[in-house]
């Protein structure tokens, strides 16, 4: 039963990664693409980590996975802001940048 | 040496011990391990941005729940938009006045905005935020976020 739940979480999490990548390819412009990557991958990784933590069966491994997710979240959201800021300045501010 | 005050060393040391326990599955307590933990504690006390940590602990669970709920919705929302054949996007710039004080609250706001449904923080100039929104009408949701962060830092907006 636990394995079924775990593999379902891993499958759904992978689906979010896939959707994020589809967004990266389909969305117009750097800003919209950043949305797809940051948000979808964050949820994808969260679900993946939950599933793996259940499969791991050891609280230490589960905690390590949680730390990995937290660090990836932090890195993702900060780099998202920095890339957006760089792109906005590069394109001449919000008066001139295509949203 | 204000950065190495006892309370800073205590919290940095506690964090280092906990992290090392997690990394080594509770078995890393040989001399080398203790050296690593001591070095990490010193580095943490020296460099950690403490103003991020001056939160009210009672408000933390509520904030975490709010964050998990909204960031999940954000992921679902953007995944749905990416997979819809019609590609439902109306991207636009939204300028918002900032009501949170500089330091921890403001840094947290900028970081978290990018994980909320359809919003992304592109620039912070003086007391204004430049937010990129995927569709119109997402600003009201950011008011909630500001309120939650204010509560977390025990501030009144």
UniProtKB/TrEMBL annotation, chain B:
It is found in: Cell membrane. It is a multi-pass membrane protein. Its main location: membrane. Coiled coil: none annotated. One of its GO terms (molecular function) is monoatomic cation transmembrane transporter activity. InterPro entries: Cation_antiport_E (IPR002758). Pfam families: MNHE. Keywords: Cell membrane, Membrane, Transmembrane, Transmembrane helix. The chain crosses the membrane at residues 34-53. GO terms for cellular component: plasma membrane. The keyword Magnesium does not apply. Belongs to the CPA3 antiporters (TC 2.A.63) subunit E family. This is Multisubunit sodium/proton antiporter MrpE subunit. It comes from Alkalispirillum mobile.
